[in-house]
Amino acid sequence: MIGKLSGTLDDKNPPQVIVDCHGVGYEVLVPMSTFYNLPELGARVSLLTHFVVREDAQILYGFATSQERAAFRELIKISGVGPRTALSVLSGMSVAELAQAVTLQEGGRLIKVPGIGKKTAERLLLELKGKLGPDIGVAASVANDSQADILQALLALGYSDKEAAAALKALPSDVGVSEGIRLALRALGK
Q1: 32 exposed, middle or buried (CB, 10 Å; 0-12, 13-18, 19+)?
Q2: 136 contacts 165 by C-beta, under 8 angstroms
Q3: Domain ranges within the chain, ordered by starting residue
Q4: Interatomic CA distance for residues 139 and 99, integer angstroms
Q5: Considering the domain 142-189 in this protein, what is its CATH number?
Q6: How far are the Cα atoms of 52, 64, 128 from residue 10, in angstroms, in the given order?
Q7: Residue 128 pairs with which residues in a beta bridge?
Q8: Taking the CB of residue 80, how many other CB atoms lie within 10 A of it?
Q9: Side-chain half-sphere CA neighbours of 175 within 13 A
Q10: How many CB atoms lie within 10 A of CB 100?
Q11: Nearest to 93 by CA among 109, 70, 79
């Protein structure tokens, strides 16, 4: 398996790039988030990759971050979601946005991605719940350290990710930890 490519960026044509590694040019399909962050042609580039072998093709998918690659791998494990659809999802939203959509069970955000219908969005929400990593989900909904502490407190008290994130969203951004927990508990108690 090819896990990483480092070389010279020879060509950029969305969603495909060609990376020259010591005279061998590798075609790599990348999500748009990675594509927009690529350097100029002729510059050195390093991509984490996922290698897919099919009966009729061998395809490399490249990612700028390990979180993107991990999300891609989780997406392709889902029945009915292939590498192209997974690439489309990661092109349509960042990993943090995907994690937040899954945490808050917002299928409407997923439906906006080309190639994702209502049933596929529901399947993604169900299958990805808890699989994108707690650090990604927390980072998506937390603006500062006090909000992170409030979120952790609510989760420790047994509230679901969705309930805790919704309560956190309703709080003022400059609220302190103890006051934030009190306000969140009051909101959740209604």
Answers
A1: middle
A2: no
A3: 4-63, 66-133, 142-189
A4: 9
A5: 1.10.8.10
A6: 22, 17, 35
A7: none
A8: 10
A9: 21
A10: 21
A11: 109
| Cβ–Cβ under 8 Å, residues 79 and 123 | yes
> Structure pTM?
0.71
CA nearest neighbour of 143 among 93, 96, 92: 96
- What is the Cα–Cα distance from 4 to 145, expressed in whole angstroms? 34
Look up residue 78 and give its DSSP letter: S
**Helices 134-141, 145-156: crossing angle, 10 deg rounding:** 120
The pLDDT, as a whole number, for residue 16 is 96
> According to the model, what pLDDT value does residue 101 have?
85
DSSP state of 136: H
Q: Please state the CATH superfamily assignment of the domain spanning residues 4-63 in this structure.
A: Nucleic acid-binding proteins (2.40.50.140)
> Would you give per-residue pLDDT tens digits along the chain (190 residues)?
789 999 999 999 999 999 999 999 999 999 999 999 999 999 999 999 999 999 999 999 999 999 999 999 999 999 889 999 999 999 999 898 898 888 778 888 899 998 899 999 999 999 998 787 654 444 445 556 778 788 878 877 888 777 888 888 888 878 888 999 999 999 888 6
Topology of the domain comprising 66-133: DNA polymerase; domain 1 (1.10.150)
Which residue reads 């010279």 in tokens? 8
Two tokens at 87?
């690439």
Q: Report residue 142 as tokens.
A: 């937390």
